[in-house]
């Protein structure tokens, strides 16, 4: 719905009013007080609600801004005290403006709630100093324009805007993050306006705000669907939603500041988010920004007015913000979410048994079901999801049973389906940060239909934080609207592995992880008995049971459950009995009794020892005084304790686990080092089937490495034979040295000896005599035949000269980048000459003829004036890139560098025939694309942005996110789960192995993937799609498309046009039967 703007005051009038109220915010005040549009404003940029920069005046020298979030609890008459205290503190700073990060009003953003929630800040709102972001509570926990209207009317700002402060000092961007989510590389509708606003900003500092944080250590956790906020040019990202304070520095260098602690309660921390350098969840507060042209200081201030932490941003030579200084902060509770302890270790529901234990289910819009009876068994019959895709069942774990995380769990399902298909569990993953991480799927084969079956899925990192739709913790997802019936689900939490398996105490030395503690119902004192130290349990004045409370140090053993045993050394002056009481996961009792121990008359005043079993024992400090267990002596028995040991089962054998991990590392990265490490780990295992199986796996790795070494040695010797030089001979010797003694090494050594015998280098300059450089008699060079660099070969203004170098030898020309250029005459010979440009990463191989080399710095132009082809080779992030210039052609390019390393080639211009290739990619790649830029990623997980021109983008393994920006792009990524999005042009994409998401826009595209479960979407155009093995989903747009898949259960939608799909083995689906040809 569109609401009409109502101009209340003319712009000049507003400026005058603001000037009289707050002179330092003259630029910040809204241009007009109005009811804003809830729909996103049309246009290329976000709507600017403050006056434009006055170019005749300089930016303000310094200003203070305040940031608050999640503060409006007064709206429902709660947390008013903390909200008012924070407001008083903020006002004491006299800020030029107050920015919010959402949830300004609780609970539903109703008109009466808004008025009450904003009371502490009404004067700021009336003065035009208040700039709010709308959060989920402001929207009434939806994205309905009607529900947010009370807030829009009250604040008189649109839901998305940009506001400027200090006449070009700061721009604050609010792109309505709560109602704009991305997916992978797919951006929300508002993104282009947001990015254009960032790109068009002339402010010294660009600050963006969004309610939900991209990364957070709090209850809501990471929100990868908001990652689009991280756009080049943004200096600081503000967020809230989680009710705590946090500073996160991402791997890409973005700074995220969470300020959700400004009044409406505090929420606990869970697993530490990647890059988190400060976290505070115990005090209310706000953030103070002190901004100058050269620096931005962010201070996290807690009540009553204490700076708990700060950081200062400055900008590097490229204009990118970086942390120049920050507080020395030490985490008082490092990573509290890494080893959580649930109150229950198992939750379930079973319709057949009519039981529910900590796990429930509810209908939801995209997860409907009906309770029914299937084949005589009560069950939930999943109904068709009218929103498309998968049938779903939303499930909820009782927070009192299990909360937070992460946990390793086993999920067990009792299910039945009338047709083949698959289903999986989608859960909140601590590793990926996704609230809908897909588990390993369960496959229902044709021979398994119409049968009640049971399957289990292991999940390593689930969190229970109610982050899914309807505050669910997880959902079962059955693709292709599989009519699945569910009778029961059980979630079992795996107990954490203990740090140690043994703790003990005696009284002759220091305790070893076990100690006693005094308590009002458990007094005791140390005594000496028979010459040894012991502990006398004193009389309990509250009842007839004498208690001794015991504590296990959490750093030794914590959580559980474990199968344990306690060994107690004791004596008593009289006959009687005692028990040990412990926290039992099996019964839920914190005071579960072991077998009773009796002390007979014959055992009086003698030391005795007993071992007591404690099945499913927990260590979570649930007894009085936070004790873990206690000894209870009946009838006030005056028992004496000499020593005590507690032992628990340690779970998996650590040696076996270490060996398994070492072999897996060798399999993933075969090398001499990883193989030696695996051999050492296996050597520690006892002889048996485990050691034998691991040895067999490692032998296979050795065979792979040996084959790779042999291939490398053969190639090195062949290179030395083709281009004899000191370098190629040494490289071949090093490669042969890696081979084991044997016929292969002997034969390659003989071949290399022949090369050495024919290689003559009289002047020892590394160049064979037959191809050495010669100079005219009488020149300075002639008297120095051992000159290795030949940097003086073309000096003193010389623009021509005769240089002869053959068979791969490299010469450096120091003045190759003179503005006047260098004209090179390459004489006759059997092979190309090579020139290395000084100060450049490029090597140029020239055939016979004349060539002109010009340029400046990292920009070069090579012209084949009257010569054969020239081959330019540049190492870009370790990947050789070759530019082959045909006869009579030329190429110009610029080397982009970072940290003294070439990272890309930009602005490639050409005349004539110029071919751009990358080492190792197929000859058929990039067909028909005139590449203008080359971008090569580093190894690891990268976020890569293309340009509007025709790009060659190369990933080097890892989980890469590639975003093209127009043009015809050639994108090649290695193994890993990649997300590739291109826009416009005829693109050529090879996503390699892994579970990839590829979105190619309109154009005649070629998309290739290897094994993995891939999602491929193309726009209109004649597309060629080759998907490897795996369960692939292909959506082709209009045009004449050809789709080919390998084995796996593929879902193919060919879209409009005359299309052909060649689907390999598996259960394949022709969506809407829009593939005119379908099958093998």
UniProtKB/TrEMBL annotation:
The keyword Signal applies. Keywords: Hydrolase, Signal. Residues 1-28 form the signal peptide. It comes from the Bacteria. The keyword Signal applies. One of its GO terms (molecular function) is calcium ion binding. Residues 65-244 form the Calcineurin-like phosphoesterase domain. This is Metallophosphoesterase. The lineage of its organism: Bacteria, Bacillati, Actinomycetota, Actinomycetes, Streptosporangiales.
């Amino acid at each position: 719905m569109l609401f009409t703007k109502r101009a209340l005051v003319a712009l000049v009038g507003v400026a005058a009013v603001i000037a009289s109220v707050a002179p330092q915010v003259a630029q910040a005040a809204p241009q007009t007080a109005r009811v804003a549009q809830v729909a996103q404003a049309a246009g290329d940029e976000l709507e600017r609600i403050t006056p434009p920069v006055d170019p005749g005046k300089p930016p303000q020298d310094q200003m203070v801004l305040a940031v608050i979030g999640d503060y409006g609890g007064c709206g429902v008459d709660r947390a008013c005290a903390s909200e008012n205290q924070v407001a008083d503190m903020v006002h004491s700073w006299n800020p030029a403006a107050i920015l919010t990060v959402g949830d300004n009003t609780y609970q539903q953003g109703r008109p009466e709630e808004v008025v009450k929630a904003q009371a502490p800040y009404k004067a700021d709102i009336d003065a035009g100093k208040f700039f709010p972001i709308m959060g989920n509570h402001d929207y009434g926990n939806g994205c309905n324009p009607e529900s947010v209207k009370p807030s829009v009317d009250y604040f008189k700002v649109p839901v998305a805007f940009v506001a400027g402060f200090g006449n070009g000092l700061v721009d604050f961007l609010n792109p309505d993050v709560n109602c704009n989510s991305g997916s992978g590389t797919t951006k929300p509708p508002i993104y282009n306006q947001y990015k254009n606003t960032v790109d068009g900003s002339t402010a010294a500092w660009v600050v963006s705000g969004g309610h939900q944080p991209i990364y957070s250590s709090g209850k809501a956790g990471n929100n990868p669907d908001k990652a689009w906020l991280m756009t080049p040019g943004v200096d600081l990202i503000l967020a809230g939603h989680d009710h705590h304070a946090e500073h996160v520095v991402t791997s890409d260098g973005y700074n995220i500041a969470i300020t959700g602690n400004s009044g409406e309660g505090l929420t606990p921390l869970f697993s530490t988010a990647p890059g988190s350098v400060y976290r505070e969840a115990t005090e209310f507060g706000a953030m103070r920004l002190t901004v100058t042209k050269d620096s931005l200081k962010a201070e996290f201030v807690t009540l009553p007015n204490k700076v708990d932490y700060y950081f200062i941003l400055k900008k590097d030579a490229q204009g990118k913000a970086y942390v120049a200084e920050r507080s020395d902060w030490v985490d008082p509770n490092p990573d509290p979410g890494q080893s959580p302890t649930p109150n229950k270790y198992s939750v379930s529901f079973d319709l057949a048994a009519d039981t529910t234990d900590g796990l429930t289910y509810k209908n939801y819009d995209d997860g409907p079901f009906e309770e029914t009876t299937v084949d005589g068994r009560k069950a939930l019959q999943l109904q068709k999801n009218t929103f498309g895709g998968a049938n779903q069942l939303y499930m909820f774990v009782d927070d009192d049973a299990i909360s937070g995380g992460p946990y390793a769990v086993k999920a067990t399902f009792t299910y039945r389906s009338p047709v083949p298909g698959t289903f999986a569990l989608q859960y909140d993953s601590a590793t990926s940060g996704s609230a809908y991480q897909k588990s390993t799927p369960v496959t229902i084969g044709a021979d398994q239909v119409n049968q009640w079956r049971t399957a289990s899925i292991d999940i390593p990192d689930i969190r229970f934080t109610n982050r899914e739709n309807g505050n669910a913790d997880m959902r079962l997802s059955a693709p292709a609207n599989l009519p699945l019936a569910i009778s029961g689900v059980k979630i079992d939490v795996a107990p954490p592995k203990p740090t140690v398996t043994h703790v003990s105490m005696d009284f002759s030395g220091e305790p070893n992880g076990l100690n006693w503690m005094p308590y009002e119902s458990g007094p005791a004192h140390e005594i000496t008995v028979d010459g040894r130290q012991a502990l006398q349990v004193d009389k309990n004045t509250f009842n007839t049971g004498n208690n001794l409370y015991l504590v296990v140090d959490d750093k030794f053993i914590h959580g559980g459950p474990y199968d344990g045993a306690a060994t107690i050394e004791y004596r008593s002056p009289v006959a009687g009995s005692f028990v040990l009481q412990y926290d039992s996961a099996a019964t839920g009792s914190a005071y579960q009794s072991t077998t009773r121990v009796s002390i007979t008359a014959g055992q009086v005043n003698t030391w005795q020892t007993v071992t007591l079993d404690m099945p499913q024992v927990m260590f979570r400090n649930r007894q009085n005084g936070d004790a873990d267990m206690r000894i209870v002596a009946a009838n006030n028995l005056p028992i004496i304790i000499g020593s005590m040991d507690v032992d628990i089962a340690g779970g998996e054998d650590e040696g076996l686990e270490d060996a398994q991990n070492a072999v897996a590392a060798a399999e993933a990265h075969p090398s001499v080092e990883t193989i030696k490490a695996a051999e050492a780990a296996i050597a520690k295992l006892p002889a048996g089937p485990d050691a034998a199986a691991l040895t067999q796996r490692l032998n296979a790795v050795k065979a792979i490495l040996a084959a790779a070494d042999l291939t490398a040695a053969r190639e090195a010797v062949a290179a030395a034979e083709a281009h004899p030089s000191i370098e190629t001979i040494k490289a071949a010797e090093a490669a042969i040295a890696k081979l084991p003694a044997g016929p292969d090494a002997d034969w390659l050594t003989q071949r290399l000896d022949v090369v050495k015998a024919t290689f003559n280098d009289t002047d020892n300059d590394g160049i064979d005599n037959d191809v050495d450089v010669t100079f005219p008699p009488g020149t300075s060079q002639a008297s120095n035949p051992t000159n290795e660099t030949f940097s003086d070969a073309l000096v003193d203004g010389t623009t021509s000269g005769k240089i002869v170098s053959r068979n791969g030898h490299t010469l450096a020309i120091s003045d190759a980048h003179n503005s006047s250029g260098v004209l090179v005459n390459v004489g006759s010979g059997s092979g190309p000459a090579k020139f290395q440009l000084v100060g450049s990463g490029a090597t140029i191989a020239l055939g016979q003829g004349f060539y002109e080399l010009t340029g400046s710095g990292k920009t070069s132009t090579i012209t084949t004036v009257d010569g054969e082809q020239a081959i330019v080779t540049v190492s870009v992030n370790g990947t050789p890139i070759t530019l082959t210039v045909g006869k009579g052609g030329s190429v110009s390019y610029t080397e982009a560098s970072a940290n003294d390393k070439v990272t890309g080639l930009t602005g490639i211009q050409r005349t004539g025939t110029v071919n751009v290739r990358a080492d190792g990619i197929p000859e058929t790649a990039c067909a028909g694309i005139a590449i203008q830029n080359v971008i090569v990623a580093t190894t690891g997980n990268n976020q890569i942005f293309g340009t509007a021109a025709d790009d060659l983008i190369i990933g080097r393994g890892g989980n890469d996110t590639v975003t093209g920006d127009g043009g015809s792009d050639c994108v090649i990524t290695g193994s890993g789960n990649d997300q590739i999005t291109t826009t416009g042009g005829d693109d050529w994409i090879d996503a390699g192995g892994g579970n990839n998401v590829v979105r190619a826009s309109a154009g005649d595209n070629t998309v290739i993937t290897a094994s993995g479960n891939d999602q491929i979407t193309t726009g209109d155009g004649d597309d060629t799609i080759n998907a490897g093995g795996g369960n692939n989903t292909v959506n082709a747009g209009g045009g004449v498309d050809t789709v080919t898949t390998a084995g796996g259960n593929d879902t193919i939608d060919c879209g409009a046009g005359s299309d052909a799909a060649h689907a390999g083995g598996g259960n394949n689906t022709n969506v809407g039967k829009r593939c005119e040809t379908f099958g093998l």
